[in-house]
Amino acid sequence: MLDLWLRTLGDLRSAKILMLMAIPFVAAIILVSLLGYGIFGFFIFSDFITQNPMVLEMQQSMESAEETIGSIPLIGGILLWIIGIAVTVVAGILGFLLGSYLILIFAMIITGFMTDALVKAVRDLNYPGLEYQGHGSMTEMIWKVFKYALGMLLLFLVTIPMLFIPVVNIVWFWLLGFMFFRYSVVLDVGMVILPKDVYEKHNALSKWTPTSAQAGIFSLSLFPVMGLIVPVLAVIAQAHYFFDKLTESQANAAKSEVLTQQ
Q: The pTM is what?
């Protein structure tokens, strides 16, 4: 994982890659400023969320719990005050995560249109002469990402009660975001670089080297502004990993051909 990180950061010395990185940075700022927070705020405060049966049930349960705790002599008020502080802190953290995800999603969409150029820049800088040819089409990729996003949304809706459990809600919300982020990057870069059979051998979540590297890169999106360049870093890191696997695959194929001829 460390080697993958170092190679990714090393590629930032390329003026071409830096220019490509600036595109989602500038465009995402404009889009977020003009559209993002308004649309996102409308969604969060719409009846779809506020009138959701599970949300209403949780609110009723919380109100009942507050009445029960408040009725405890002497310490009831103190307990409610402590719980109120804890809820405020958790809500603030979740709000921060939601804002970070919003910025990241815009940057991912913009970066998705530049994947070919980024992959070619990484190849030219680190693997000159290496021939690559991916598989599938843009339509196929969009459809797969769309289906996966629907699955993540359904999982989120089913697990809404978990958002009311301190600490667990933060970890779970981070994990949902990371799963979608990783799937999108791996699919996008893999379809550009690898033949389908090779891609299917190396796209699993259990491939811990790229998965852990992507988790570290994804975590950078929690820092202000970093979400605007995180997708570019993720594409570069995944491109390195897949180019390594493509090189191994081509070398093995060449050896097999030689043995066959003998």
A: 0.76
